[in-house]
């Protein structure tokens, strides 16, 4: 499984194969069962993840008990809740394994140590974050500017693998609509 991580890192770095293998050699990989809660809303995140296999759902529950899905992370995606630099530090989201998962597990408290030991890693992570932030901004702009049917079509184009992997009510929540609306859109298309 570590070869998946090395292949991913090569996309953002020109480090040698041996250097990447050295970095990855100490990376812990854990298996989690479907339904495992990785982070509970209100906790201070201590860990980040990288999905080698499976699906992790990011969601929140409001004061009325309504659950909203914000994202699904699948193979070759990083999962981090960034709250270290906020006054509150507590996560506004929960993370749960939507499928059985194999995840790289990173300790956020040792992040700076890793950068000090491997300076190229910090540059690589910056490139990765810049790309992810650009995609997030584009996705948000598209979401705000589009009608529900257009959101669904865009989702089909960008993440078709998720259609059969997650429950329809969670997908509808992610797309900002009710499950009934999603069913009508699917029938029309």
UniProtKB/TrEMBL annotation:
Record key words, sorted: Activator
Domain of life: Bacteria
Any single Pfam family the record assigns to this protein: cNMP_binding
Every Cyclic nucleotide-binding domain range: 11-57
CDD domains in UniProt: CAP_ED
Keyword GTP-binding: no
Annotated InterPro entries: cNMP-bd_dom, cNMP-bd_dom_sf, RmlC-like_jellyroll
Record protein name field: Crp/Fnr family transcriptional regulator
